[in-house]
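B., you asked whether I could sanity-check this one before it goes into the benchmark set. Here's the sequence:
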Amino acid sequence: MNPDVIGWFASIVLLATLVRQVITMARDPDAKGVSRWLFLGQCVASVGFIAYSLMVGNRVFVATNAAILVTAIVGQCIVARRKSRRGLAGVR
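And here's what the prediction gave me:
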């Protein structure tokens, strides 16, 4: 079996779980308990893994980590918007 098939399968499973988590977060009106540090760390790690994967020429991990970076950015935006709304609601 081609090792890339296993890599692509694992990537699809991982990305499906991350996308599902972001969707769940997007539906939570408060996003309480979600740390901004989670997404910051995920972004930094993804950029590092993208660079590494490019250096070793692994297309599976370049694509996977680029997609993970997108989920981290979307998640960060959702959390920031929710926490901002919660802060503004307290001002009124």
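One thing to flag: The chain has one domain: 3-91. Otherwise nothing jumped out at me.
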